[in-house]
Amino acid sequence: MTAVGTVTELEVHDVRFPTSRRLDGSDAMNPDPDYSAAYLVLHTDGGPPGHGFCFTIGRGNEVMAAAIRALAPYVVGRPAPAGAAALAALHRDLTHDSQLRWLGPEKGVMQMAAGAVINAAWDLAAARAGLPVWEFLSGMTPAELVSLVDFRYVTDALTPDEALAILRTAEPGRAGRAARLRAEGYPAYTTSPGWLGYDDGKLVRLAKEAVADGFGQIKLKVGADLEEDKRRLRLAREAVGPGVRIAVDANQRWDVAEAVRWMTALAPFAPYWIEEPTSPDDVLGHAAVRSGQPVKVATGEHAANRVVFKQLLQAGAVDFVQIDAARVAGVNENLAILLLAAKYGVPVCPHAGGVGLCELVQHLAMFDYVAVSGSWDDRVIEYVDHLHEHFTDPVVVERGRYRAPSAPGFSARMEPESVAAHRFPDGPVWRGRPERPEQEVSR
Amino acid sequence: MTAVGTVTELEVHDVRFPTSRRLDGSDAMNPDPDYSAAYLVLHTDGGPPGHGFCFTIGRGNEVMAAAIRALAPYVVGRPAPAGAAALAALHRDLTHDSQLRWLGPEKGVMQMAAGAVINAAWDLAAARAGLPVWEFLSGMTPAELVSLVDFRYVTDALTPDEALAILRTAEPGRAGRAARLRAEGYPAYTTSPGWLGYDDGKLVRLAKEAVADGFGQIKLKVGADLEEDKRRLRLAREAVGPGVRIAVDANQRWDVAEAVRWMTALAPFAPYWIEEPTSPDDVLGHAAVRSGQPVKVATGEHAANRVVFKQLLQAGAVDFVQIDAARVAGVNENLAILLLAAKYGVPVCPHAGGVGLCELVQHLAMFDYVAVSGSWDDRVIEYVDHLHEHFTDPVVVERGRYRAPSAPGFSARMEPESVAAHRFPDGPVWRGRPERPEQEVSR
């Protein structure tokens, strides 16, 4: 835990992958995403750098890059963060600056930018400690972990003392669970078969491959057409057999009554959960959907911050909490959310996919297993099989499980060649194409 | 309603006023704001331009400017919007682009940027119609107004048919109320005395001036120190006498239990409402504060979108809905919020102040009176007496009331000299100062 050097530069790149050309990632709300990252490197004058990013689906990635740049004065010139105290202070400065706060508060572009910088600081600190982030976190004391959490606005649901008690309860079993995790890996499910733009043949083929690869759960995108959804669910069920769970994901497509109606119609196909049935801001709406139809409810990848998660739990609105590593204010805010979920006894099943989200979030789920919830029952990390080749420490998923990463850091470093090739708009992948990806504008 | 010309350019300026030098605008969360605007002009090849802006309090204003620039391709090249259909289509394109949506959805930086562009389009359309925006809106049919609203995610609280019924009920009285509004003006309250950074002498002097100026309500900032708050409330009450309402505003300072405790202690001083007791995202928290202590609850200036307002109303969390003209997606989304408030019978008391927020929001409150709620009982528009001199059609507040604006447009145009002088970082006001306003960073 020795601080080495000072942060000298925050380098930012607008990196975009032309995924829309193959309809990877297509769903009821996102017909043609170009998976992108506003990627940053924290350079220091000694020791390894830190890497972080915001994930976007194309247009607006330059706004995220501008937001990250706006945070440079808060991190450049600091000692390279090494331990809990420095990482807590950085999180506080980035999320509670009195002027920047006006742009959220704690939501949207500025919160994602803060998350990217905070995650980069964790990458840097864990790299200096020579540990992957999940082990770096799992090696902290309960008191250190509590000191990392911003309890503002959540004490009506979780106090620091309650958080400490949760962490202390899990403490004795840490070593045993870490050993089991290294031996067995963490359960995963795959969304690769289920993109809405894929034809039936591709759906069936990929669903069968998922089962052969050892996955116990797959996920299908739904919400564009009810009869189509029934047909695709039937096809998927025939492909995977009765023993594999099929979750469905509406990507915020419905109003409350429509969600209830649609899922009542899909319930006979026994979907495992319905994900994002409606607006991610609609706590009361999710509660109404959960009580109005028989399928379990999952949400969280677009929940803006811990205050929204707190309410989802208080209102009994969700069966599964889906954290995202790059939507909220980094490791610190996700730690608050993991503790809230543990307090309410709701399993955390992280959202992943995109660019590098699998790489990041595996660390948080594994830390949750080792040191917070102490369980992986009913828990699975999403897995999508694309774009991992652009990372220097890509996830390894075998027999339906994430292998515990062992390289130091947050698995957040992109291959320099990938960054250079996909820089928007001047990288070779984009040069000669229209300056912006095509837009749908009604005139 | 004839379209004249095409939008040819979206011009953006980062404009900042050094208000922190005098502690104008200081409160428990915002000790030293530099009131700022990311200001835009929609130029056309015929007819008047449109003006709009996002309000910020300093740092990060350049991120807002970048977000507005990201929206240029959605508006440049369109016919200059003239009527409801074009204004509805623009709102839809700016808030539901499948890729940009990922950066919110519908919240924070991107939603404010969309709001600024949408409001500029309303300024342009009303200017072409030769009407102030409140009259332009009040001249639309109930069906046209309903067509402007995005009902996605709110139909469990308000259907298009219900909205139509609300507007039709108000329709017969429109002309009478418009005439009364022109004659009498709309009730206002003033926050000018209550900034936390002002000393007792300035507080008492400004409170007395407010009463002499005809205001029936003032507002004090609270939340930094309970004994100080009691003392200042006592001073203010002595200064204004028993007949003037004193609202208090905590600017999100408290957790739920603290808000209940603090306001229970302030209740003997009979504050008229407690504004922003806790996180603007905390619907359930506001409901708990409302039921846990005797003072009425107001919030909304930081509520991200119509989905949050919907829930505040569904949960019975607020006594007053405080719309902000520049936080949500422009006139269209505020129209949804006005209709929701009317459905639930909760009065709308707009947030204003900042840069140009009084100028914009007066139009929405007046339209609400004329054509939606049909009432100004228990309704007041916030008024703060600074920075109006930078607008070409500044608000006029006399004897505690906003005079109905008569100039065409949205009162959104800034004096070109003000824009040039306050451009950050290269305008004469900022040149020679540090590139960024001072930051508090804990190291």
Automatic annotation (TrEMBL), chains A, B:
Domain named Mandelate racemase/muconate lactonizing enzyme C-terminal: residues: 200-296
E.C. code: 4.2.1.68
Enzyme class: lyase
Keyword Acetylation: no
Keyword Cytoplasm: no
UniProt-recorded Gene Ontology molecular function terms: L-fuconate dehydratase activity; magnesium ion binding
GO terms for biological process, alphabetical: amino acid catabolic process; carbohydrate catabolic process
Positions of region (Disordered): 414-443
Keywords noted in UniProt: Lyase, Magnesium, Metal-binding
UniProt catalytic activity: L-fuconate = 2-dehydro-3-deoxy-L-fuconate + H2O
InterPro entries linked: Enolase-like_C_sf, Enolase-like_N, Enolase_C-like, L-fuconate_dehydratase, Mandel_Rmase/mucon_lact_enz_CS, Mandelate_racemase_C, Mandelate_racemase_N_dom, RHMD-like
Cofactor(s) the protein needs: Mg(2+)
Segments of skewed composition (Basic and acidic residues): 432-443
Full protein name: L-fuconate dehydratase
Protein's organism: Streptomyces chattanoogensis
